[in-house]
Write a structure and sequence with these properties.
With about 150 residues, this protein is an alpha+beta fold. The protein has helices spanning about 1-10, 30-40, 50-60, 110-115, 140-145, and strands at about 20, 25, 65, 75, 85-90, 95-100, 120-125, 130-135. It is about 30% helix and about 25% strand. Strands 3-8-4-5-6-7 form a six-stranded antiparallel β-sheet. A two-stranded antiparallel sheet has the order 1-2.
């Protein structure tokens, strides 16, 4: 988990980009979380939205609900069927790292600067629309315990 969080923190300050999944050009929220999951071999196949990441880890029983440990995926929106944002807990439920601040018009770095949209660390409690928290069963943890 420590290496995953170190990897995530390297991206702080990189621009938000709607639909982005590129470390250099920018990430949107789900693209960023997929990059983090890929770094530990847990990325679901294909391009995922925040909603489809929730569906993958919850519906397919690939994670534990409710835990706010380091590495927990945090899902935000109106309900569990209307998830619009995903982030990752970096220190046992106190702070999260996210690609945030942008929207569908944030398609390049100039727009990201205007919107103050980038990869950042924020207190989880500052968002009032947390609807689910799922901690994936990380294979790297199982392997390190064996």
């Amino acid at each position: 988990m420590e290496l995953l969080i170190q990897y995530a923190l390297q991206f702080i300050g990189r621009p938000y980009r709607w639909g982005g999944d590129d470390p250099m050009a920018g990430f949107d929220c789900s693209g960023f979380v997929q990059e983090l999951l890929a770094s530990v071999g847990e990325d679901p196949p294909g391009d995922q939205t925040a909603q489809s990441l929730y569906d993958h880890f919850r519906v397919e029983q690939r994670g534990q609900g409710g835990r706010l440990d380091t590495g927990t995926l945090l899902f935000f929106g109106k309900s569990v069927t209307e998830i619009s944002h995903v982030a990752m807990s970096i220190d046992n439920g106190v702070r999260m790292i996210e690609a945030g601040g942008g929207g569908s018009k944030t398609v390049n770095e100039a727009e990201a600067i205007k919107a103050n949209a980038y990869i950042r660390v924020r207190a989880i409690k500052n968002r009032k629309d947390l609807v689910a928290a799922i901690r994936p069963y990380y294979t790297i943890e199982k392997e390190s315990q064996a």
